Amino acid sequence: MAKSTRKFNTSYDISEAFQTVENELIGSMMRNLNHHRAEELKEGYNWSQWQVEQLAALDKYKKRNMKRYKGVFGNINDQIDTLITMQRAAGNAEQEISILKAMEEGAKLQRAEKNISAAGIFFKINDEKINSLIKATQDDLKKAETAILRMANDQYRKIIFNAQVYAMTGATYEKAVDMATKDFLSAGINCIEYSNGARHTMADYADMALRTAQKRAYLTGEGEKRMEWGISTVIMNKRGNPCPKCKPFVGKIFIDDVWSGGSKNGISETTGLKYPLLSEAIKKGLYHPRCRDSHTTYFEGISTPPDDKYTKEELEELAENYNHEQRQQYAQRQAEKYGRLAEYSLDADNKRNYKQKFDNWTNIVEQEESKKKYENKSTIIDVRIMNFKEYRGKIDVLNENIKTKRSIWNTAIEILEHRSGTKYEDLAFINSKNGKSIINKSYNVPKSAKMNKKMKKMLKQAEPNTIIAIHNHPDSTVPSISDILCAEERGYKYGIVVGHNGNIFKYKIISKVDAYNVDFYLEKAHGIIYNNSVINQDKLADTIDKLKLFGVELEVIL
């Protein structure tokens, strides 16, 4: 098999790739067990002969997998350095924007020569740290990649012998194999064991390792830029659901002696005030693996004073959110467990029972999701939308290259996850030539989206009719007349509206827009889609044809 050339843009992409590998390994194994059935003789199954056939199949399975996944794993490992390096650059760029914005608001900052010189030395040291981080991450994943193939082989061999043992109890072939594979299918290929004894799948481990490495790289980039400007004070952001280990540090100001070159004495060079060291907080648990908390620059005299106190109500809500999250994660693991058992069990009764349990746990996941405290429960994203292959298929029908389709998919998911349970909208631009994207996630005006400076620059520099615009509609409405007029004015290749209910609308300007009639027929299309229990496809098609007469091509992807 030729080496895979698939590009991975995020840790989610790589985790998804490893999940695909795990599913393929399990699926191939179960197909072999189902296909190489023992012949039924008058005296029963010839299990000895069956074992011989299965062991021969195992040998082929091992060789095929080693050859097949060598290219996949190699491609993943080759791209880790790019992912980590990009995060460092992103942290650097985002931090510079924050600094320039603070200067506009009155911060007295200067890029002194000594700061630039010190940052240059720090930069070289960080080069070594980043290279070490890349190598360590690649080495860890290589070990895990070997482990997943070895465990698949070991489990296959174990199943071959256990199936015969269970058959001796009088079980049918299907039930014997199901009994032999139950523990394996329940856990998945959990080939990674942590120091506390917990076992995890390759996909779960890769997600943790890459998120952790990318976060460190991003913080490194931020720190380098702070050092150029002589800033070392940072503040841990206070958010609604901090990690339990990080909660003691939330809302506090620190001297960043880890990434920003802050003094080890904890004294600010700007004000002379003494603050705790970030390194000490890290020793006590801050920035543990999978940590979702983060710090930002604290501009002394400009930034809002820290709020590190939680009210009784806030503490109760934090406890409730934490318990809810634990219940939801448990329910999700159970759903995945019974999903595998339902898909791969051979006995019909077992498949039916496992399917019922899968449905029950899936319902519990949905119930837990609905319990989250949102501003607007009516706009909460159904978690199943983003997991269904059908939703990915809605993006795949677009006439774009693979890179651009993947960018559209990732951007749509990011927007929906960010704005779930709100009335706010995010706007994103994607260059259809190279798949590069920019999202404005900081405009909090209900039912309104806006370009930021980077997006304006991207639109200006792009070739005509190459920018694809994506934004969400929390109420899942069709494109508005404002959306249409923006598309006409800015010269989009086309626009996409992603609804919180899973519906997608693509709109394209094909001639001079007649605003009055377009507005009328958009309202009509919305009524046809949402005001009836069954969509009248003929009326919808006629309305779409009418829109074309007035300058707009609308594609409805339900």
Task: Walk me through this protein's architecture.
It is built from 14 helices and 13 strands. The protein has 558 residues and is an alpha+beta fold. The strands form four sheets. Strands 9-8-10-11-12-13 form a six-stranded mixed β-sheet, sandwiched between helices. It has a three-stranded antiparallel β-sheet with strand order 6-5-7. Helix 1 (11-35) runs antiparallel to helix 2 (47-104), helix 1 (11-35) packs parallel to helix 3 (113-167) and helix 13 runs antiparallel to helix 14. The model has no long low-confidence stretch (mean pLDDT 86).
Order of helices and strands: HEEHHHEEHEEHEHHHHEEHEHEEHHE
> Kindly state the mean pLDDT as a whole number?
86
* Biggest sheet strand line-up: 9-8-10-11-12-13
Return residue spans where pLDDT drops below 50 for at least 5 consecutive residues: none
Share of residues in helices: 55-70%
Radius of gyration: 28 Å
Strand content: 5-15%
Could you say which overall geometry the principal axes of the C-alpha atoms support?
globular
Q: Tally the helices: what do you get? A: 14
What's the story with the biggest beta sheet? 6 strands, mixed
Structural class of the helix and strand makeup?
alpha+beta
Distance between the termini: 37 Å
Number of strands: 13
